[in-house]
Every structure is written in structure tokens, then in C-alpha cells.
Amino acid sequence: MTTIAYQLYCSRNFPPIEDTLSMLSQAGYTAVEGYGGLYGDLGALKAGLDGNGLTMPSGHFGLDMVEGDPSRTLEVARTLGVQKVFVPWVAPDLRGTDLESWRAFARRLATAVAPIRDEGFVVGWHNHDWDFADLGGATPMDLIVEAGLDLELDLGWVTRAGLDPVETLRRFSGRVRAVHVKDIAPEGQNADEDGWADVGTGTQNWAAIRQELDAQGIDHFVIEHDNPSDHARFARRSLEAVKAW
User: Which CATH code is given to the segment(s) 3-243?
Assistant: First the structure.
């Protein structure tokens, strides 16, 4: 069964979260993806999800929480019904600078997520564009996968990195547990939205991408836009586009 979720980070500039959850439910969503800034009041968040008929099958968890407080990570995941824990980003000063330092980071990441995996959760890494840097025959993404992590592949950032989403899906075949469905505006458009677009209105070749997703049996899609000027418009149009697949 296909899961079409909404990454709540898209709506960070449109508080309160209670209104966002209601808007998403009315737009036809049944699932969302969480992120670290929402995990303060778990009871209220869980009530908001339940009250709007929403589930949270995946969530973004900062490395500081996963590594520094695995018990809290597990508490959040269990309370909210999260099944897939993805580390989404690390500050530049924590990233590698060459092959060996990135390999060391990948090992650190694998050690950090091990207690979460041991409790039965899917654990993985969510990419941007900088983790596709050429380190001389390998990229940070290659090293992270080699260290044992699965992936939530952000197809928008794959394209921003100058790569083809279909080829990248094939490159990591068998390791992609979810994808971020993200579109890119035509050149020169949507400058006020950092060049992103509502899904289906941009330049991504969704027909080819969907064919590869189907071929690999990937059925967990997370709709995302890093900076929508109108989150309700983005949520509605993007869900319509993905459902039309």
C-alpha cells in the first residue's frame, strides 16, 4: 500500500501546527513526516495527529538526539508511531572534508543509529546535494550506505546535485526506504521560493521516476517543498499531482 506523506517542515513558517494538521487532513492527507522542532510536547502532537486522522510513519531526528539521547529518540518514535528514523542533516563543521574524514563520519553515524535499529526501527540518512560530492571515486552517500545505513532519497536535492534521479535510484537500489518527492521550478522562476516548485509543476521527469519507483517497489513518498510561499496551495496541488500518478 502506497504511503503519501507531507513533511511538516514545509509548514514551519505557518504556525501553529494544529492549524497545519487540520489543513492537511482537509486536503486529503492521511500521513505526515515529523522533524525535530515538533517533538517538544509529544502529547499535544499525538492528539493533533489522532484528531485529524493522520499517522506519522517516518520522522527526521537530528544526530544530536539520536547519538546523544537514544532513549528519548525511541520515546518520541514510539509515542508518535514512527517506524522509520532518518537523520536529515549535520552542520558543516561535523561533515567530512575528504574520503577518510567522511568515512569516519559514516562510521559515527552507523554507531549512533545502532541502538535504534536494534529496537526494530528502520534507520537511514536523508540527503541534500553536498553529500554527493566527488571524493575521488566515491561520494559521502556511498560511504554512508557502505557503513550500513538505508536512505530516504530526496529527489529534489539529487537533481540539484546535477544527478539524474532515476540513475541515482538505481545506484542505491535495495537501500531506499522512502523518497522525498520534490520539484524544481523552471530556470528563473519561483525565486521567492528558492527555485522549488509545487510537485507536478516543475521540471522533474515524474513519469520516468515513478516507473523506477514502481520497479523497485518503493511505496513511501514524502511530499516536500523547502520554502513554499503558500503551504496550503503547495500541499493541495502536490497531493493532487502525486495521486494522479
Answer: 3.20.20.150
